Amino acid sequence: MGILDSFEKGLERVVNGAFAKAFKSGLQPLEVTAALRRELDTKAAVVARDRILVPNRFVVRLAKGDFERMVNLGPALIDEFTQLVQQHATAQRYSFAGGISIELQHDPAITEGTVRIDSHNVKGAIAWNPVLDIGGKRYPLKKARTVIGRGSEADITVDDTGTSRKHVEILWDGTRGQVNDLGSTNGSKLNGQPLTKAPLPPDSVIEIGRTRIVFRVLAQAADVDQFADLR
Hints:
The chain is of the alpha+beta class.
């Protein structure tokens, strides 16, 4: 499977995963992400031999019903959009001037089932936001150290008898991640290899017991409200 094939599978995951029940009708998240991808490709500008600049701030304009359905899902959907935009930019070797910001807006001029994207290049600070995807749920890492295991004393508790009460810890210093096995009974794996202590690159997969943990880092703008409404 190529990079773009993987990207398409990511789009399907947005629709068929945790958000599917909310989108039995109307505009689908898949259509919004495809529109964001087209916006990147259309606005891509070659500024140097090895640098193609694309917009990093996007306003997604929606009809009232579509807007309300998407806003009700909260930040998780915006995180999915951001991640997939980031993946497409990486695949195409695009560069951003700053962190990615995706804002949803209700626009009375938009008809149900359609979407319009406005985009801009905005230079600004990047907030590197680490998250863990576990069992269809996303957990932002708010602390420098996060413990995962089946015990109530763990920061993130997993319902898996194959894991220890405190199985692994994730360390984050603001720019880099690290994962350490905490002397677990059954051991841990990182990207399929036995794990004791290791750096944690973005999109790494940690396995503990029957639980699969994906570590991601979202390069988001630090100062933008993700949800808004046009009055």
